[in-house]
Amino acid sequence: MPNVSLLAVLVATLLGFVLGGLWYGPLFGRAWMA
User: Reduced to 3 states, what is the DSSP secondary structure of residue 2?
Assistant: First the structure.
């Protein structure tokens, strides 16, 4: 089970990083800088 847990953590981390980048990048980048 350690392998499955590690995979889940890696996937969640990558997914969160991508979603965070998209959220604060193109969507609210200009509003945030303003």
Answer: helix
pTM of the model: 0.54
User: Any idea which residue has 């200009």 for tokens?
Assistant: 30
Contact indicator for 32, 24 with CB cutoff of 8 Å: yes
Q: Which of 13, 8, 14, 16 is nearest to 24 (CA)?
A: 16
Residue 28 φ then ψ, to 5°? -120, 15
What is the average pLDDT across 7-11? 94
User: For 3-34, b where at least 16 C-beta lie within 10 A, e where not — what string?
Assistant: eeeeeeeeeeeeeeeeeeeeeeeeeeeeeeee
